[in-house]
Amino acid sequence: MGIYERGKGEFVMSQMKWTKAQQAALSARGQNLLLAASAGSGKTAVLTARITELLSNTQQPVHITDLLVLTFTRAAAGEMKSRVASNLSKAIHEANEAGDHALSTQLSHELLRLSSAQISTLDSFFQSLIHQYFYLIDLDPNMKVLSDSNEIYLLQQEVLTEVMEQWYQKNDSAFNDCVDFLSNGFQDDLFKENVLALYQFSCSLPFPDEWLKALPTPYDIPEDADLSALPYAQTVLEHYHGLVSDWRLSYQHLLDTLTFVPPLYSAYYDTLKKEAETLEALYKEKDWYAWQQILATFAFDRLKAVRKDKNLPPEAIEEMENIRTTIQATRNSIKDELQKDLIPLFSVPASSWIKQIRTMHPLVKAFSDVTRDFARAYQERKKNDGLMEFNDMEHYALDILLDKSHPEFSPTHAADFPSEVALSLRQKYKEIMIDEYQDTNGVQELIAELISNGHNRFMVGDIKQSIYRFRQADPSIFLKKYETYESKEDTLHRRIDLNQNFRSDPTILSSINYIFRQLMNKEQLELFYSDKEALIPGRKEMVNKPDYIDHSVSLEIIDRTESEEDTDTEEEDVDNTTLEARLIAGKIKELIDKKAQIMNPDGTFRDVAYHDIVILLRTMDKRAPLFLKACQEENIPAVADRDDDFMKSTEVQTLWSLLKIIDNPLQDLPLLAVLRSPLCGLDETDFALLHLADPKSMLWDNLHHHISELSSHRQEIVRQFLEKYEEWQAISCQNGIAPLIRDILESTDYLTWISGLPNGSFRKSHVRAFYDLALQRDKDHSNSLFSFLEYLRQSTKSFSSISPATEGNAVRVMSIHRSKGLEFPIVFLACTTKKFNMSDTNNPVIFHRTNGLGIHYYDKAHEVHWKTLCWDAVSLQVKKEALAEEARLLYVALTRAKDKIFMTAVIKDSVSSIANLIEPLALSRDEPMQFLPNHYIEYANSYLSWLLPAIARHPSSKKLWEYIGTSSAFILDHPMDKNTFFDIQITSYNELTCKPSAEKENISPAIINEDLSHFINTSTHEVEPWICRQLEWRYAHTAATLTPAKLTATAAVKLKEEQENRYAEEIPPPSAVLADDLPDSEETILPADFSEPPDFISQKKKLSGTSYGTLMHKAMEVMNLTALTPTEEAIQQEIKKLQKQEIFTDEEARILLSEYGQRSPVKDILTFLQSPLADAMKTAKVVRKEMPFSLLHKACDFYNDCGEDENIFIQGVMDCLIETDKGIIIIDYKTDRSLSAEELRTHYRMQLLVYQEAAKQLLQKKVIGLYLWSFHLGQMIPIE
After folding, report:
1. CA 1161 – CA 1172 distance, rounded (Å)
2. DSSP letter string over 832-875?
3. Pure H helices in 29-121
4. Which of 6, 7, 998 lies closest to 593 in space, CA to CA?
5. Is the dihedral of CA 1210, 1211, 1212, 1217 positive or negative?
6. Does residue 552 sit in helix, strand or coil?
7. Which distant-in-sequence residues (6+ apart) come within 8 Å of 255 by Cβ?
8. What global pTM score does this model have?
9. H or E stretch including 599?
């Protein structure tokens, strides 16, 4: 191979030896070429070299202006121009040396034409078309491009409000229902956000109005429609058919495994066989109604107990237990998914699904129509105001290039109707080259088709690196060509694969291949990762030095299994990101200290430096500062690109406040902020003096009239500030806001001051971004101070600024998105347990390019909504694409590395968590390379949930299986991935939270003793008596300082127990032993009709013991126990009556009327009604329920160290007081689970005694009985 140019990923052209695939890409002519270029394959070098070769052809000369070269960023376009210029210069030099003066002259002319070449961004090309042909589409040639997202948003809100007003005046019922459905309360802001989201999404399509108009069509179906024939039903069925296919294979593995373990076979085989047959029946059917019939009778039976053979050796017993655990884990995961998704979905009658879909048709049409009206009104408004956005450029360019006036024109065949302009461009451009083609959208693709002559497109990209779907990129455009273009040399549509990687170590490439061969499949992640997609090592290799960095792919797991001792450490609140940051900082320090070797592009070696290392994060948000802090603690230089809202920074807020008071000084808060800031420097004492001088006046008035209240130094500061204020106010009326801000910064030296603060460079970039915003507003508008402040006030979008990382020898912290196109010798992929952001798939309204719009069913009467079949179909597709994007992001992250990859994760209870994830794989051991089961892909929620199962199947992961104590699940290596190696390390949480610093570790005990001795012996004279008195003084009533002023009765009981047991060797169990959580006795199934939300949306939660106790107390309070007949029927009728009166909620009534094994609330209440306490209620003069009280009680009863004269205020509520002729009976209800009545009596005696004292004081009557009523024991317990 040739010499790889350092740091650029390209070859020096004059010394290049191209690979066969690269040479084919350079020499092919007269074809549409798709260059599928994997990471590190030198695609940009090939593209620029192809340009040079085209220009070097003396037989069929091509001018640089005959080429259209498009990319997505100005930086990329500028770099491409620079490379072409460099290549031309070298080619001219070589031609001169060879004596080819004709070629030299030709290339020299092309070099001169380079400045006018169309090597640009797509937006620049579209803008040039508009400027040249604006008259064809009746457009003002001086239209201004809107680039400020806040300005765009404010304009959209203004136009949308006008459109909504028109719709409100129509009083359209479907529109009103749609607004009610998609709004939050009485505000329609959420509905507006949905309209804007739909509009923005449609703008990435060639014909947005036609797409919006077609959205209601799938909901317009006849009442007797065949559900099984509907496309969205087929989409849902196909999705679950894929899962069932996966599950049946898993069951086959289970059954095959059982044949080797007789005890398990006899216990499990029949049950598993029956379930496997049901899954097989589902797999064979592809009809909705057939699935409904099969699933209606599908149930999971309880597995029989396994009899253990004590005669078996321990190893055999352990192996059998591992297999049993794996079988149960596999079965339970399938069972959970079936019961959660499939069974509820297919339990709904087809007529209900169809009814929901038909019901939502008017709402979808209203939603579509409002969006279309807004799109037209917004476009008209921008046109009238001479404005356009970037997506407008695409559509205006498309209008120029399309002949829509043709009688046979249709959007589906738009490429067949080029305009005269498009035809002229076809003649002009000999070749159309598009870089990063995987990131194009439908509009851009149609434009490229219209200006192409059909055989001159050169498209470069990598579908595995398409990571901008959130910007409306459409990877399916590249993917369709990737799958249909052929590799034959003589075909019109040709695909050339560049999969030789010249960047990374073979072990890294092999390991990446090993992971993605298992992850990427067509069904789940849009692409099949085969040998054609696999990365082939291509970089120059030399014999590795002994100290060459370990080039394996390392997975560093932090085990956060906290013991009781762990929870007492002072660092118990350390979050996972901080733990990972500390681990990574330690690894970096270790690499630098031991001078680990990395490879140069020419094959030589050198010591690793800080700038060779990058820490990649899925999102920067709040995580990046934690990594910078951890590096700083280890004295590691580190920098980060930060994309943050500069308006929220303190330094900009101060300037904003200053502008506010320049506009209007009678604003106390902004004025206070400015005076307190370094711009003036007053403090709280100064503000207090000014306020006290005249409390009723504004701060500004007091600043003028009562300045004498301040010290002379402060007075001078204020006078100087007021002088500057007068100057600033004068400037604000002259030339805009930017000159005003510039004067403020220069006259106060504000930038110098903030530069000295922590993160000074970032703070300066915030202030500069604020200045740039003002400068832009000055250029684009007649910008008064008031209008600028009003603009800032109304803007709800964030003001993002990019604070670039400074260059130098420092570790970089960046997002995966920003790392695309870069390379680093050492890559740390951190926070792999971060959850995927799937919020878009959960919205009640979601949309997709081809599947249209999915919407929830809205039950207006009950104001609830739930999924429809249309929504399910769209959601499944959106989720599939979102997961595919996450997989490609993971691919981008891993392919940045040249020599070493570290992946880090924090796992709580790591043994059980890892076992749950990888144990089911053990059934597929010793098989050839295969995909991970579909449910591993679909139900993944983080990178780790993909990485861990994939890595666990490799033999180098043996340590992982030993860690969880289970048989391994290794599979055979693919022949191309023989270099694969994973290094798995598991670090304890304690090692990162209790790690002493290096400085402390190196201090010897002798030095410490010597220093202490010197300190102790320094002072030899006696201490003065008054100093002793001062230092030895103790407050006489220390206990009072530790005593709360107020306690609840329950807390008082707990304190009493603690006082009595603080010297006990064994602490008795706590007094509140709560009842077991109550299981839900009902199956979670969908009701036949939808008069209430389906259970699979609003699943009933288990009731905790505390909640159950509260409910029973409520029942005893609200039920008329004195008039109630002691029968179950009477109690049930009373509960239902109170439910109708809305005293009990439906859920409370359900709990009270249900039975849970041996427990029944109705029976518990009946037992009480049959007790002597209930008889006493019926004959009582007065029965008081839930009676609150407050009283003073001696503190020494609860705090032994308190004096007799100290009291404590106690509050509480007594459950029931029965007043009789003889006195008062107090009852306290308990739902606690306890071993005996004596235990309850002991625990609650103090509480009842407190109640007794309270009743005496409040009612002035004798208490004749204290009783606990235990629902658990069904008996009354007297308290002496």
Report:
1. 19
2. TTPPP--GGGGSSEEEETTTEEEE-EEETTTTEEE--HHHHHHH
3. 43-55, 74-98, 101-113
4. 998
5. positive
6. coil
7. 269, 272, 273, 276
8. 0.72
9. strand 597-599
What distance in Å separates the CA atoms of residue 5 and residue 8, rounded to the nearest whole number?
6
Instruction: Looking at mean pLDDT, say which of 147-156, 315-324, 493-502 comes out highest.
Output: 493-502
Q: In whole angstroms, what is the distance from residue 195 CA to residue 208 CA?
A: 13
Neighbours of 965 (CB within 10 A): 12
Least Cα distance to 978 among 507, 503, 542, 535 occurs for 507
Cβ burial 520-535 (10 Å sphere, 16+ → b, else e) = bbebbbbbebeeebbb
Residues 6+ apart with CB under 8 A from 1047: 1055, 1198, 1208, 1209, 1210, 1211
- CA dihedral sign of residues 435, 437, 442, 448: positive
Residue written as token pair 């295969």: 930
Angle of helix 43-55 relative to helix 74-98, nearest 10 degrees, comes to 50
Do β-strands 553-559 and 982-988 pair in parallel, antiparallel, or remain unpaired? parallel
Q: Which amino acid is at 785?
A: L
- Lowest pLDDT segment from 50-54, 235-239, 928-932, 1257-1261: 928-932
435-488 pLDDT, tens digit each: 999 999 999 999 999 999 999 999 999 999 999 988 889 999 999 999 999 999
Which residue, among 655, 718, 657, 660, has the nearest Cα to 686 in the 3D structure? Answer: 718
Give which of 757, 772, 961 is closest to 148, Cα–Cα: 772
For 660, residues 6+ apart whose C-beta sits below 8 A from its C-beta are: 667, 670, 789
pLDDT at 1087: 34
Burial class (CB in 10 A: 0-12, 13-18, 19+), 1162: buried
Q: In which element (H, E) is residue 321 found? A: helix 314-337
Please give the structure tokens belonging to residue 1273. Answer: 């024991």
Residue 1128's H or E segment, with its range, is: helix 1128-1140
Q: What is the pLDDT of residues 513-539, one digit of tens each?
A: 999 999 998 888 889 998 899 999 988
Q: If DSSP states are collapsed to H, E and C, what string results for 686-708?
A: HHHHHHHHCCCCCHHHHHHHCHH
487 contact partners, CB below 8 Å, separation of at least 6: 494, 495, 496, 497
Give the integer Cα–Cα distance in Å for 200 and 374: 11
Q: Is the dihedral of CA 734, 738, 739, 741 positive or negative?
A: positive
> Which of 552, 622, 558 has its CA nearest to residue 586?
558
Amino acid at residue number 1: M
Whether the Cβ atoms of residue 966 and residue 957 lie closer than 8 Å to each other: no
- Alpha-carbon span 1079 to 1083, nearest angstrom: 11
Whose CA is closest to 934, among 276, 343, 244, 275? 244
**Which of 767, 886, 909 has the alpha carbon at shortest distance from 834?**
886
How many whole angstroms separate alpha carbon 945 and alpha carbon 333? 15
Over residues 639-654, the pLDDT tens digits come to 887 656 677 788 888 9
Place of tokens 């940045």: 896
Number of Cβ atoms within 10 Å of the Cβ of 2: 17
* Burial of 1247 (C-beta count, 10 Å sphere; 0-12/13-18/19+): buried
Cα–Cα distance measured from residue 874 to residue 848, given in angstroms and rounded to the nearest whole number: 7
Q: Quote the CA–CA distance of 996 and 137 in Å, as a whole number.
A: 72
pLDDT at 1010: 57
Task: Please name the helix (run of DSSP H) or strand (run of DSSP E) that holds residue 291, with its range, or none.
Answer: helix 288-296
Amino acid at 14: S
